[in-house]
Amino acid sequence: MTFLRPALLALTISVPLTAPLFAHSEVKNPVVMERMKTMEAIRDGMKTLGDMAKGKVPFDADKATAAAAIIAESAEQVPQKFEANEMDPASEALPAIWESFDDFVQKSNDMVIAAKSVGTISNESALGAALGQIGGTCKACHRDYRAKN
User: Fold this and answer.
1) How far apart are CA 52 and CA 133, in angstroms?
2) Is the whole-model pTM more than 0.85?
3) d(C-alpha 62, C-alpha 48), whole Å
4) pLDDT at position 24, please?
5) Cα dihedral sign for 43, 44, 45, 51?
6) What is the mean pLDDT of each run of 10 residues along the chain (149 residues)?
7) Residues 6 or more apart in contact with residue 24 via CB below 8 angstroms
8) 3-state secondary structure of 146
């Protein structure tokens, strides 16, 4: 059960960042809609890992590993999805993304590296470590580039 401490820390970091539901029905800009779908895939992967860590669903190594892979694949798309400086009232993206685009891209790359580096999540300890690594990258980017609701 020592895996719970890092997992709970990661949940403390990631759940507030991923909990708000995306308001897809309100989005008018198709570029922003595509960005939001990519971010939603990352959120869903984090939710899968978080639900396992919290015991809401049983630990499943295959599902946990697949969730980390989806996070990595989606994070690889983030720079391209945000390349165009497009806004929409329903978006939580801050203008700072385009003002500091190189830093934004680096933070996205950090998530890719973190998600890929966890490899196979074979047990609950590895799950906690994965949440800590990936959740830290979520927080780093959201702190600077996502509007707070």
Assistant:
1) 16
2) no
3) 11
4) 66
5) positive
6) 49 46 74 97 98 97 97 98 96 97 98 96 96 96 92
7) 33, 36, 37, 90
8) strand
